[in-house]
Amino acid sequence: MHRAMTVDSTKSRPRLLGMLNYLDGKYQHDIARDARQGLAASQKYIPCKYFYDARGSKLFEDICRLPEYYVTRTELSILKEIAPGIMGTFTHKDLVELGSGANQKIRILLDAAGESNRATIRYIPVDISESAVIEASEDLLERYPGLRILGVVADFTYQLDVVPTERPLMFCFLGSTIGNMSEDESISFLHSVSENMKPADRLLVGFDMVKSRRTMEAAYNDSRGVTAEFNKNVLEVLNNELNANFDPSHFDHLAFFNEANSRIEVHLRANRDVSVRLESIDMEVEFKQGETIHTENSRKFTSKSIEDMANHAGLYLQNWYTDPNGWFSLVVMGLNPLITPQML
Question: Is the pLDDT of residue 173 over 90?
């Protein structure tokens, strides 16, 4: 169940409706379970959602400003162009951002809505990081004093049903975060979104498209080493949350394009034989030199793979927007009226 947080509604936060925390006490259970399963697997792994503690979120913001990381600036350029058309008639609706993190992109949409339209909008950020939701909400309320915000701390990969749906809404799933999921996971996720949509609702999704290997691999191997630091930070998360004794210097950042699976794979590779103790879950893990922990996938898409996913999830592609190079796509999806839930 969730706990409702009472949020100060005075001064600079006059329209913050509150915050619902559906992970209260659950995060610790989930990270313990996922670490035990992942580090006991033949190919060790840690789910990438655990990158995003306060430090990890800050490091990711730094990554988004790197010259090699084309993803964010390309998506922003498209979003700035299309926002007026999307938000010009967006009134008396909910704007639901899945994986909210920093609010740079949502500000573009809110700016485009205009002051009178914004007064009718409720913004609902959904993120596993309570601090990210709070910080994003406070920043937006300072920028838009009349905006109403309902923060939701939840894992949208399996808790989408907690999002209020009593008003018309648009889900926003930006940054090609969908690329962190496998094909089956992404179809299942899109299907869960469609199950929470009404015919007038929409879903705005960002997709990083397939391009040259050199461009893609450079984006995940920046010359300043910020991505490497971000990758290693997940070990610090395990140290903090599970009383582990990982030494990040014992692991090297590794990122490469797996052409067969059309994805960037991100790993941490042991640079020596390593023994690690995770005290909170009473677990010892041994690493041979060269052995890796798989920390993230970032799938790259084609127009066909996007259309196929949407079809399997009971959605149709209403509008498709891209940059001149075709490096990134923003796609507006709606419920496919020809497909019923029983057909999926």
Answer: yes
Query: Which CATH number does 18-26+66-212+302-336 carry?
Result: 3.40.50.150
What is the pTM assigned to this prediction?
0.91
Three-state SS across the chain? CCEEECCCCCCCCCCEEEEEECCCCHHHHHHHHHHHHHHHCCCCECCHHHHCCHHHHHHHHHHHCCCCCHHHHHHHHHHHHHHHHHHCCCCCCEEEEECCCCCHHHHHHHHHHHHHHHCCCEEEEEECCHHHHHHHHHHHHHHCCCCEEEEEECCCCCCHHHCCCCCCEEEEECCCHHHHCCHHHHHHHHHHHHHCCCCCCEEEEEEEECCCHHHHHHHCCCCCCHHHHHHHHHHHHHHHHHCECCCHHHEEEEEEEEHHHCEEEEEEEECCCEEEEEHHHCEEEEECCCCEEEEEEEECECHHHHHHHHHHCCEEEEEEEECCCCCEEEEEEEECCCCCHHHC
> How far is the CA of 60 from the CAs of 93, 95, 146, 298, 315, in angstroms?
30, 23, 29, 14, 30
Confidence at 17, pLDDT banded by 50, 70, 90: low
| Residue boundaries of the structural domains of the chain | 18-26+66-212+302-336
Nearest Cα neighbor of 256 from 247, 248, 264 is: 264
Per-residue model confidence (pLDDT) at position 344: 52
Query: Which two tokens mark 288?
Result: 């041979």
Q: Based on C-alpha coordinates, what's the Rg of the chain?
A: 20
How many Å apart are CA 96 and CA 165, to the nearest integer? 10
Residue 269 token pair: 């590779």
Query: What sign does the dihedral 71-188-341-172 (CA atoms) show?
Result: negative
Q: What is the pLDDT of residue 36?
A: 98
Q: What is the DSSP pairing of strand 328-335 with strand 202-208?
A: antiparallel
Nearest of 238, 223, 225 to residue 280 by alpha carbon: 238
Any bridge partners for residue 217, and if so which?
A: none
What's the CA gap between 3 and 169, in Å, rounded?
24
